[in-house]
């Protein structure tokens, strides 16, 4: 019986894995066109893994999608043995963006939790200014949004995400300098116990226009978190657990 329960728990855990996959610019649904699509919906195995940068084996970018008024210019270059295209979208500083997570690629039904299986944890969004969002492999990520845990019922970031059909909206700071950016969306599941965080990460390629002059400093991934960080030192079911925000404070500019 004990073995059966362990097996059922394992199956439930695997079926509850998820992936960030869609981006909204204001009310316009960009779908996956601006995403560095990850290879599967499994969590990142280690905080020191290169996958912490933009997720597990994301598809390399291959095009640019520029939006200006009612005119849309779409350019892309094909890749041998692949017709997948990852786009770059432009928008103004101060614009609202929404990132979207679901359990399975292409499945956006609100009837299913975005990330289930008691995968409680924070939801965090970072941005990094880069020379070219299509090819960048490093960046200084500053935090622009966070839903952590207040200690009340259904207040984990992942629970709030589920209540909103997998969507988390945020506003691009008006002070940011114009240019290419990576938007790094992340959920960190903490259900596996102390010292065992399970991050889910995807990057979206964007271009900011009409911005200011701010170029906030941030942290690198991997390197932004350590398993010795306070958030990962106690199990969330421990009576003495207290939420401590991982990484830098949210940039208020």
UniProtKB/TrEMBL annotation:
Q: Which organism is it from?
A: Cucurbitaria berberidis CBS 394.84
Top-level taxonomic group: Eukaryota
GO-annotated molecular function: cellulase activity; cellulose binding; metal ion binding; monooxygenase activity
Which EC numbers characterise this protein's activity in its record?
Answer: 1.14.99.56
Co-factor requirement: Cu(2+)
Signal peptide: which range, if any? Answer: 1-16
- One GO term (biological process): cellulose catabolic process
Q: Does the keyword Cytoplasm apply?
A: no
Instruction: Write out the function statement from the record.
Output: Lytic polysaccharide monooxygenase (LMPO) that depolymerizes crystalline and amorphous polysaccharides via the oxidation of scissile alpha- or beta-(1-4)-glycosidic bonds, yielding C1 and/or C4 oxidation products. Catalysis by LPMOs requires the reduction of the active-site copper from Cu(II) to Cu(I) by a reducing agent and H(2)O(2) or O(2) as a cosubstrate.
Q: Which reaction does it catalyse?
A: [(1->4)-beta-D-glucosyl]n+m + reduced acceptor + O2 = 4-dehydro-beta-D-glucosyl-[(1->4)-beta-D-glucosyl]n-1 + [(1->4)-beta-D-glucosyl]m + acceptor + H2O
Q: What is known of its domains?
A: Has a modular structure: an endo-beta-1,4-glucanase catalytic module at the N-terminus, a linker rich in serines and threonines, and a C-terminal carbohydrate-binding module (CBM).
Q: Where in the cell is it found?
A: Secreted
What this protein is called in its record is AA9 family lytic polysaccharide monooxygenase
Which GO CC annotations does the UniProt entry carry? extracellular region
Family listed: Belongs to the polysaccharide monooxygenase AA9 family.
Auxiliary Activity family 9 catalytic domain sequence ranges: 17-239
